[in-house]
Amino acid sequence: MKINKKDRLEKKCNVCKEIKELKEFNKSVISPDKHSYTCRYCMVNLRLKSRYNLTREEVDNLYITQEGKCCICNEFFLRKSLVVDHNHKTGITRGLLCSPCNRGIGLLKDDKEIILSAVKYLNKHT
Q: Do residues 88 and 100 make contact, with C-beta atoms less than 8 angstroms apart?
C-alpha cells in the first residue's frame, strides 16, 4: 500500500498487477492493510471461472443476448443484478436470472415435475 500525490491510498492487485485505489479492494482481516490482495474486478473474474468456467466477457455476451432480461420473468435488470444460473448436476450454464427467479427454481429443487405441479396448483387456485 502506498499514498500517491493526491493523498489517495493505493495498492497493487496480485492478479492484474495494476495499482488501484484501495476502495477497489474488499475488506480483509488477514491482510496487514485490512484489504484483500486481489481487486474486486479480478475477484469476480476468478469466481466466474472457478464456479461456472465462464469469463466476464461470456457473461456480458449472455446479458446482451438476453437483452438485459431475466430468462424466467422477462423483466429488465442491470447487469450486476442478474446471476448465472446453472444445472447443479452437469454444471452447464443455462442463462442469467434475477435473484428471486434463481432462488425460486432452487427452492423447487430444479425439478421440472415440482415446478409443473406448482403451475397446476396456481392454475387451480386463481
A: no
Q: How far is the C-alpha of 117 from the C-alpha of 25, rounded, in Å?
A: 45
End-to-end CA distance of the chain: 60
Question: Is the separation of the CB atoms in 41 and 16 below 8 Å?
Answer: yes
Going across the sheet that includes 9-12, the strands are 2-3, 9-12, 19-21
* 3-state SS record for 56-117: HHHHHHHHHHCCCECCCCCCECCHHHEEEEECCCCCCEEEEEEHHHHHHHHHCCCCHHHHHH
Query: What would the pLDDT profile of 71-122 be if each residue is shown by its tens digit?
Result: 999 999 999 999 999 998 899 999 999 999 999 999 999 999 999 999 999 9
Q: Which of 2, 27, 45, 56 is nearest to 12 (CA)?
A: 2
User: 3: which strand partners?
Assistant: 9
Upper half-sphere CA count for residue 42 (Cβ side, 13 Å): 16
pTM of the model: 0.79
Please check whether residue 36 is in contact with residue 27, taking contact to mean a CB–CB distance below 8 angstroms. Answer: yes
